[in-house]
Each structure stands twice: as C-alpha cells, then as structure tokens.
Design brief:
Layout (H helix, E strand, L loop, with lengths): L14 H17 L5 E6 L3 H11 L3 E5 L4 E6 L3
Helix pairs in contact: 1-2
Length: 77
C-alpha cells in the first residue's frame, strides 16, 4: 500500500471530508453497475461500507490490509 496517494490533493486535511469523498465515489460506482465492485477504502469507513451494502442489496466482503486500509468487494447484483 506504500504506492497509494491522492491523485488530487484536497484543499483540506479534514478526515471527515476525505472519508465522505471516498464513500461518495464508491456509492456512484455501485449505483452505476451490476458487476462486482472491488475497492480500497479507509478502515474508518467500515460502517459506511456496511450501509452501502445494505442500501444496494449487495453482500460485501472485506480484507484487512495494513492500517488504515481495507479491501472491500461487493458482489454482483
């Protein structure tokens, strides 16, 4: 995970903003495909990942990587 960084630096370092952008991007991806979706997310968004799974009716699986990352996989619809 050492090779991951923001492609576009935000004008704020607020963790809540960063978490919101991450969930918003994931939400748009899930709404626009019926295929499986696999993404890296911050572990602090674990609860929101569960809410996205519930809202979209998709089972979700996660794998803990190194802090602070999870690899989440949403099943196809």
């Amino acid at each position: 995970m050492d090779g991951y960084a923001c492609a576009l630096r935000f004008d704020t370092d607020a963790s809540e903003f960063i978490r919101g952008v991450e969930v918003g991007r994931l939400w748009e991806t899930l709404k626009n495909t019926d295929d499986p979706v696999e993404e890296f997310v911050h572990a602090s968004n674990a609860e929101m990942v569960l809410r996205l799974a519930e809202a979209t009716g998709r089972p979700v699986h996660s794998e803990e990587l190194n802090d602070p990352w999870l690899l989440v996989t949403f099943d196809a619809i």
